[in-house]
Amino acid sequence: MEKVEKKDSVGFGYGEPDLKSIYTGSEALKKAPKVYGVPTGIKGLDELFFVVEKEGDKLVKKPLNGIPAYSVFNLTGVSDTGKSLMVEQFAVAQASKGEKVAFITVETPANFVVSSLRLRAHAMGIEFDEIQDNIILIDAASSTRLRENLPDLLATLAYVIQNYKVKFTVIDSVTGLFETKEMLARSIVRRIFNFMKKWYQTALFVSQKRSGHEELTAEAAGGYAIGHIVDGTMVLAKELIDSSYKAKIYKKPIGEVVRLFRIDGCRMCGHDTSVRFLEITEEGLVEIKEPIFAKK
Fold first, then answer.
1. Which of 37, 80, 211, 266 has the fewest Cβ atoms surrounding its Cβ within 10 A?
2. pTM of the full predicted structure?
3. Which CATH class is domain 32-291?
4. E strand or H helix at 105, and its extent?
5. Maximal C-alpha separation, the chain
């Protein structure tokens, strides 16, 4: 191999190039996975993603019927907007198809989370006893070591992925991994994101908003660290109808609470851009409804 001369990089010292990190476009394309949709188990969500393909001389928009495979999505919002319900529905939906799901619980101990997963399965008409072992819980809520030591958490997840053949990962919530060290939030999220890509995981991260953040922005605790790194963000919000103006916009009576949903970008495919109503049913399932400014 030809020896590469070390050069000063504009005053930053003499470095050595990493030749393994260099690819031509065709070389990188050989390693690129095929984009296809992963059904989420969330009514009204899957049809909001699409790809544009060339057919002859025309570009044709085709529904993906799910979130793109191998994508890492951030679900952010204030409390009681349906974030945990959505990732639980996602985990149950994958498990019901015989897939293995790693569920990292950071906020609530595993024995409580599994009870919630069982309720979600019953609401979805799925026998939880038949799928329960397809969901592998990693209890970081009860383990200070896993919650505070990212290398140990990722080593545990790698063990689970290898031994259980996991293809899907949920973290609820990723905010809990940097809540006492927000200055490191971007670094922590980047390491987790790169891990998911290395292991070809389709992943959902829950992140918490502070009440001071604007409801429909992608910002979460830790600033924009998560939204700038992941493949896409889904924003969940709730709004109290406390004026005639809001009552007119949302077509709801004063005093009622409405929940809202928006996809805030996706690098891997096209997506719907409208703000939509979100409903939590009596059974505890999240459904994505029509746009708030639906065309007549």
1. 211
2. 0.89
3. alpha beta
4. strand 101-105
5. 74
